[in-house]
Design brief:
By secondary structure, the protein is of the alpha/beta class. It folds into 2 domains: 163 residues, Leucine Aminopeptidase, subunit E, domain 1 (3-Layer(aba) Sandwich); 315 residues, 3-Layer(aba) Sandwich (Aminopeptidase). It has 14 helices and 20 strands. A hairpin with an 8-residue loop joins strand 3 and strand 4. Helix 6 packs parallel to helix 9, helix 8 runs antiparallel to helix 10 and helix 12 packs across helix 14.
Length: 499
């Protein structure tokens, strides 16, 4: 889908539909909508008077224009109460409207940029969230379907409509940022939705290489021999049971100038998680192809970072492997030695994500990380605690934590900070090694994060547990069933805010 801009009399826009917005606590339409309504002889006002157009969140009313304006139809989308409208409201509303219009066969759709009448969003932000909502909402993954029935009709062109040429610069900037961010999130969705027989550790490395080539990034990847040389015993311990060779993937962006800041994004890349010797139940195991969602998010965020060119150095690290119960697999009771010298008592081989991240965080520190953000589909305990609504967040530096939460708010990706009190450390204190990889049933997400904290050491660090938010069981708003691409846009916002 191409995203374009249109400036001038909006009634003169020739398309299959125009999307306009309305709020429920206002007796008047926005100015653009008023102009359209006059051309429609007051049809919208009449419907509002009868309650068919009420501005409630999620509401949609379609009115055919019968040639009174150039567009074939007008769709009025409700945003809820005016003072509660935020970018996420707009993203979801645009996504739902576009999905509905797609079913009508619409090919060319315009969306009005309601500025400055919505105080919670500036014109650049509005252009960005409209663009993101449309692109993400129309996402379809049907790569392996012979009959692509759900994808017969596509919206080919989306136009951002404004009657004011003075906002052209801001609209263009928002549109470009929205396209780059949405494209990156979709790249992550595609990676997560790929089957594990295709998205192997080697294929993840190839994806990173493709991203590097397209975005002007530096790329490196190495396997067992270099891991052994570096002492990555935790990562190698997880990889033992699989025939697929593990890869440590590195993408790097060098900022122009002499920036001393070097942000590291670290993502878990378990391309299939059987649980290892501590094997998982069969129900739902098919979704474990998505246990590399953290790694996919890092690779995809780097794709956007290379194009947006922040003023800080950024590297992405992805430890990639399968977790399988082969004859050489790590057993419960085994002891592994991580890159930083700590020994780990493995009590449950299904707590493997923290093992590979331990070496990845240690590796990032060895490369001079000044800030680290890791993300992983780490614990079922986080899903129990927070469900699928928001991501669990932990960290050792409150300023960094606040920055990441703010970046998530801007992206519409909710996060909730959970504690890392010292008392939780007792649960993972090792009996036969320095540390245990599980701490029992209580506070499972916290003890997993506490484990990672030992490998972040004194580097400012944030951990995002995306176990509940990386995969959607049904479509809603701009999310489709399957991989969500969660945290990609948060990471982009975070890095750009550091400029």
């Amino acid at each position: 889908m191409k995203v374009e801009e249109y400036y001038g009399d909006i009634t003169g826009f020739s398309g299959d539909a125009i999307i306009v917005f309305h709020v429920e606590d206002s007796g008047r339409f926005f100015r653009t909508t008023q102009r359209i309504d006059r051309s429609l002889d007051g049809a919208l006002k009449e419907l509002a008077g009868k309650g068919e157009i009420n501005g409630k969140s999620g509401g949609r009313t379609t009115v055919h224009t019968f040639g009174k304006i150039k567009s074939y139809r007008v769709m009025v989308a409700g945003l809820g109460k005016k003072d509660a409208v935020v970018p996420e409201t707009m993203r979801s509303a645009v996504a739902e409207c576009c999905k509905a219009l797609k079913q009508t066969g619409a090919k060319k759709v315009g969306v009005t940029i309601q500025y400055p009448e919505l105080e919670g969003i500036d014109v650049q932000g509005m252009a960005q969230c409209v663009t993101e909502g449309a692109i993400l909402g129309l996402y379809v993954y049907d790569k392996y379907k012979e009959k692509k029935e759900d994808n017969k009709q596509e919206i080919a062109e989306l136009y951002l409509l404004s009657s004011d040429r003075k906002v052209k610069g801001a609209v263009s900037e928002g549109r470009e940022r929205g396209e780059i961010s949405a494209d990156a999130a979709i790249y992550a969705r595609d990676m997560v939705n790929e089957p594990a027989n295709i998205m192997t550790p080697t294929r993840m490395a190839e994806c990173a290489q493709e991203v590097a080539d397209a975005s002007g990034l530096e790329f490196d990847s190495f396997g067992r021999e270099k891991m052994e040389e570096l002492g990555m015993g935790a990562l190698l311990g997880v990889a033992r049971g699989s025939h697929q060779p593990p890869r440590l993937i590195e993408l790097s962006y060098k900022a122009p100038g002499a920036s001393k800041e070097h942000v590291f994004l670290v993502g878990k890349g378990i391309t299939f998680d059987s649980g290892g010797i501590s094997i998982k139940p069969s129900a739902g195991m098919d979704e474990m192809k998505g246990d590399m969602a953290g790694g996919a998010a890092v690779i995809s965020a780097m794709k956007a970072i290379g194009r947006l060119k922040p003023k800080v150095n950024v590297s992405g690290i992805v430890p990639a492997t399968e977790n399988m119960p082969g004859g050489s697999a790590t057993r419960p009771g085994d002891i592994l030695k991580a890159m930083n010298g700590k020994t780990i008592e493995v009590l449950n081989t299904d707590a493997e994500g923290r093992l590979i991240l331990a070496d990845a965080l240690s590796y990032a520190r060895s490369l001079g990380a000044t800030r680290m953000v890791d993300l992983a589909t780490l614990t079922g305990a986080c899903v129990v605690a927070l469900g699928t609504v928001c991501t669990g967040l932990f960290g050792n530096d409150q300023e960094l934590i606040d920055r990441v939460i703010k970046a998530g708010d801007e992206a519409g990706e909710k996060m909730w900070q959970l504690p890392l009190f010292d008392e939780y450390r007792e649960q993972i204190r090792g009996d036969f090694a320095d540390i245990k990889n599980v701490g029992g049933r209580e506070a499972g997400a916290i003890t997993a994060a506490m484990f990672l904290k030992d490998f972040a050491e004194d580097t400012p660090w944030v951990h995002l547990d995306i176990a509940g938010t990386s995969f959607a069981s049904k479509a809603k708003g701009y999310l489709q069933k399957g991989g969500t691409g969660v945290a990609v846009r948060t990471l982009i916002n975070f890095v750009l805010a550091k400029t």
